[in-house]
Design brief:
single chain; elongated; mainly beta; four-stranded antiparallel sheet; 7 strands; 93 residues
């Protein structure tokens, strides 16, 4: 199947989603790659530059490669919310 880009930070290698830096597999194509990444979550209100209107429950989730530490993606969410789902959309050549 070979190798192709899934995003700026992720690759598809032989049917798996992998870190684009070290090529460590994170998940199968039909699973959420975020479940295979290292997760760090911090309150968004504690971040430098957060304004007084930042809701105290909102958190910044950072997803990193467990093998090399490369930051793969981040998202804002409420605690307990499911991870945002990234999908590869078919493209026409």
């Amino acid at each position: 199947m070979g190798e192709r880009r899934f995003s700026e930070t992720l690759l598809i290698i032989d049917g798996s989603i992998a870190c684009g830096h070290c090529r460590q597999p994170l998940s199968a194509m039909d699973e959420s790659w975020k479940s295979g990444a290292r997760l760090s979550a911090v309150p968004a209100a504690s971040l430098p530059g957060a304004g007084s209107a930042t809701h105290p429950d909102v958190e910044l989730r950072s997803f990193s490669c467990g093998a090399c530490g490369t930051l793969l993606d981040s998202e804002l969410a409420l605690p307990g919310d499911p991870f945002l789902v990234d999908r590869l959309l078919p493209t026409r050549l």
